[in-house]
Amino acid sequence: MKQLFCLLLSILLFSCNSKEKKHTKDNAQNLPKEIRTDLYGSYVGDFTVLERDTTRIAKENDINKINIIIKKITATEVTGQSVVAGNSRALSGKMTADGTTIHFILKEPGDDKNDGVFDFEIKNDSFLVGTWTANNPKKEVTKRKFELTKKEFKYDPNVMLPEEGMYIDYVNTKEEQVTEENDDPEIKETETYMQTVYREASESIVTINSSTKKLKESDVKNLKKIDLEILRNTIFARHGLTFKTKTVRQFFDDVEWYIPVSDNVNSELTNVEKENIVLLKRFEKYAEDNYDSFGR
User: Fold this and answer.
1) Closest listed residue to residue 86, CA positions, set 215, 233, 225
2) In this structure, how many other beta carbons lie within 10 angstroms of the beta carbon of residue 286?
3) Based on the structure, what is the number of domains in the chain?
4) pTM for the full model?
5) Within this chain, do residues 126 and 226 fall inside the same structural domain, yes or no?
6) pLDDT 10s digits, 5-15
7) CB within 10 Å: which end of the chain, N or C, has fewer?
8) How crowded is the C-beta side of 76, counted as CA atoms within 13 Å?
9) In what order do the strands lie in the sheet with 168-181?
10) What is each CA distance from 232 to 54, 177, 268, in whole angstroms?
11) Rg (CA), the chain
């Protein structure tokens, strides 16, 4: 009796298994066929203002770095993602082809004040050109253009900020009063005026790797606040975090290796990086900056 029961149970399980496999196979066969998979990937470059309400104080950057990611193409639908200025938004729409021209119209969901519609073409399978129009015609910036190059994102803990150039914070400036004496000793007059001053990072931001080296207090205790901020955010930049604040974006948007891919990369951080972030944030809290005058 026991053997008969086991036999019947085995037959039942086999039957259920076969039906499940057939159901899965049928579902796979019913899925729309993917096409032009060679176009999948990230297209990265400048997202530049075309139309702005000039009667208002400019709050949005003229240029941000954007990543348009194409994830799936079928004959009836295209899905993807836009990543720019701290926002990561789903995209959906359609693709049409006319000869060698491949045209896309992809829409963001529409439930965010910054959502809009991307209208672009892909040329030579790797060059994406088009415009974005805001859903809200009353936004400060209602239209942007972009010319993007196909790039593959890959986390590399060894990439560093470029050594050339000065890392100056042009967003958080101060005004200070300056008094100067006349160069002519016979004329005892002084001139007083207001001068814009900026904070500048030290060379530590291009020499210290906060992703590969476990930092000690002695490594960071003499650094300026801006140094600590940039070292911490370089960790996130290596993982492709899209930064919400202008203060951070000004240091990374022009960096060749930086590709924004996500608005949350916390799960990707290594143990060394997590420990360094805690240390850097602790010292940021009490660090200070020196301000000086620089031409822009």
Assistant:
1) 233
2) 8
3) 2
4) 0.86
5) no
6) 555 556 555 55
7) N
8) 3
9) 168-181, 190-200, 291-292
10) 35, 33, 15
11) 27
